[in-house]
Design goal:
The complex is a heterodimer of chains A (375) and B (168).
Chain A: H1 2-16, H2 26-53, E1 81-84, H3 86-89, E2 98-101, E3 106-109, E4 114-117, E5 123-127, E6 134-138, E7 149-152, E8 162-167, E9 173-184, E10 193-203, E11 209-216, E12 222-230, E13 237-244, E14 250-257, E15 263-270, E16 272-273, E17 285-290, E18 297-302, E19 308-313, E20 315-319, E21 325-329, E22 332-336, E23 343-348
Antiparallel strand pairs in A: 1-2, 2-3, 4-5, 5-6, 6-7, 8-9, 9-10, 10-11, 12-13, 13-14, 14-15, 16-17, 17-18, 18-19, 20-21, 21-22, 22-23
Chain B: H1 3-28, H2 31-47, H3 49-52, H4 56-69, E1 75-76, H5 96-108, H6 113-124, H7 129-136, H8 140-157, H9 159-167
Helix pairs in contact in B: 1-2, 1-4, 1-6, 2-4, 6-8, 7-8, 8-9
Classes of the chains: A mainly beta (375), B mainly alpha (168).
Chain lengths: 375, 168
């Protein structure tokens, strides 16, 4: 029986694929390569300049047994890597995260599908190509698979986690998206979908984890989930999602959840998404930015009403303690004062422009030592 | 890239882009997305043309699948949507073939990107499990389980496929 199904499937797939192909011009691909080469060159120059001035990062090794505290300091060993994310640099994403090796001055490909450094830069959450396998590793051993402490695996009951790349601001916890489902609410029309997102919260120190099921009924059918993040104050959760009748006519909302997973509020965020740490330290504001790889714009909204109170160029990266926020623009990082559109204290990281990468909300709060690139 | 390499790359594009596009169409289900995907793939191939030596086709396919399967922190709900109304089974008339094709296209759109990629690799490209696994950088077991889940889902989403199967 299954052999017949296989055969039939083969036949129909060939029919489906029988579509006229457009002409592809080799020159277009070559032009794209030249553009990218210029960008990467500028990027490498920029990151190298910053690395040269960076403060040494003590090494943290995760050994078998209980994990070491993330905030441990005091070692004189210099971590060898600063993170870069070529997915931001390049339009397409093959998934090849790379780390910058200070000693050789070159980028080194990692074996990870995703690699996201903690705010203090000492640890990295990594996901393997083996789907759903997520772990934590010391930054200076990020290329050493044996050093990874696995915290989730799709084969275990915790589901099929998709790393959401979100660390808590203090670096003590990692948040993973362990599964999403949408189901019709009984007795309602096709608009009555209940969305359930399983947030897997992992303690970075002990590696203990728990699943919090986040339930909400969005105003329209769900289309995409954009990101799951820790909520205001780092206790609760928030999910940015697309809702709408079709993907082409969808709109974004940010749903806030309490610590038990019940939806408490939602605000419209349009076509935008949220950075890893989108909430102001007092928990009253949220920064949203355009959902493009880089060079977009940021809006600041009040959580209570969704009113816009700030707007600037650049993609929000995170907040400072004094209601200013950090943005990433093409080739630079800058600070924006609330109510001002201007990017202040801008730091050009790539002298000739180009694309910036490796900017994470590291050390924004004065955490020492800084992880990657800081102002 | 020197002139000779550019000419070689041009010949590769002329000879293989249509085939890549068909695969991309199966993976995306959308002509424009497929076009984008192939264009991005060709850029990547051009970038590494010197290093990929005698196997640009294999490298291009690898890039194509990875580009499609991976998304920057974005997951689609569409694959999770329950189906409240399954399509009608094939009617046995001359339009049944077209219906099945349309139904299968719709069903493919409801699979995850990876499930779709695995099905295309196994049943369109006819790759053995080990080669499909190598191309997607996953284990053979993952290919098997993904294919199994995808087929199970297709049976629900596209019952015509099963009816056709049973009637033959």
């Amino acid at each position: 029986m299954s052999t017949d199904l296989d055969r039939r499937l083969r036949e129909v797939l060939r029919e489906v694929a029988d579509v006229p192909a457009p002409e592809f011009a080799p020159a277009a691909a070559l032009a794209g390569v030249r553009r990218r080469r210029r960008r990467v060159t500028a990027l490498v120059a920029g990151v190298t300049a910053v690395v040269a001035a960076a403060i040494a990062v003590p090494a943290v090794a995760l050994r078998p047994g209980p994990a070491q505290p993330a905030a441990s300091t005091g070692s004189s060993v210099v971590a060898g890597y600063v993170f870069a994310n070529p997915r931001i640099v390049q339009r397409s994403n093959l998934g090849d995260y790379r780390v910058f090796d200070r000693r050789s001055g070159r980028y080194v490909a990692t074996q990870w599908r995703t690699a996201v450094p903690s705010p203090d830069g000492r640890l990295v959450a990594v996901s393997a190509w083996d789907y759903g396998k997520v772990g934590i590793v010391a930054a200076d051993r990020v290329l050493d698979e044996a050093a990874v402490r696995w915290v989730a695996n799709s084969l275990d009951p915790k589901g099929d986690p998709w790393i959401s790349a979100v660390w808590s601001a203090d670096g003590s916890r990692v948040l993973l998206d362990a599964g999403v489902s949408a189901s019709l609410v009984d007795g309602r029309t096709d608009k009555g979908y209940q969305v359930e997102v399983d947030a897997l919260v992992v303690d970075a120190r002990t590696l203990a984890s728990r699943v919090v099921r986040l339930r909400s009924v969005p105003p329209d059918p769900p289309v995409d989930i954009r990101k799951i993040v820790f909520g205001p104050g780092g206790k609760n959760f928030a999910v940015a999602m697309d809702v709408g009748e079709t993907p082409a006519r969808s709109d974004g909302i940010l749903v806030l959840f309490d610590e038990r997973g019940s939806a408490t509020a939602q605000i419209k965020i349009g076509r935008e998404t949220v950075p890893d740490q989108p909430f102001s330290p007092d928990g009253r504001l949220v920064a949203v930015h355009s959902d493009v790889a880089y060079g977009g714009s940021t809006r600041v909204l009040t959580l209570s009403t969704g009113t816009e109170v700030g707007r600037s160029d650049g993609d929000a990266v995170g907040w400072l303690d004094d209601h200013r926020y950090l943005v990433r623009t093409v080739g630079s990082v800058g600070v924006v004062e609330l109510g001002s559109r201007r990017v202040l204290s801008e730091k050009r990281l790539a002298p000739a422009g180009g694309d910036l990468t490796g900017v994470w909300p590291a050390a924004l709060r004065g955490t020492a030592p800084p992880g990657a690139i800081v102002l | 890239m020197d002139a000779e390499a550019e000419a070689e790359f041009g010949r590769f594009v002329t000879a293989r882009s249509a085939a890549l596009f068909r695969t991309a169409y199966l993976l995306t289900g959308d002509r424009h997305e497929a076009e984008d995907l192939v264009q991005a793939t060709l850029e990547r191939v051009a970038q590494r043309w010197r290093r990929i030596g005698h196997s640009p086709e294999a490298y291009a396919r690898r890039v194509l699948y990875h580009l499609q399967v991976e998304r920057w922190r974005l997951r689609s709900f569409r694959r999770e949507m329950p189906v409240d109304q399954v399509p009608e089974a094939g009617r046995g008339d001359h339009a049944a073939g077209a219906d099945l094709r349309v139904s299968l296209e719709a069903a493919l759109g409801k699979l995850t990107r990876r499930q779709r990629a695995v099905l295309v690799l196994r049943y369109f490209e006819d790759l053995p499990e080990a080669e499909a696994a190598a191309l997607l950088d996953v284990s053979v077991g993952t290919i098997r389980s993904t294919a199994s889940r995808a087929l199970a889902r297709l049976r629900v989403l596209c019952p015509e496929l099963v009816h056709e199967e049973a009637s033959q």
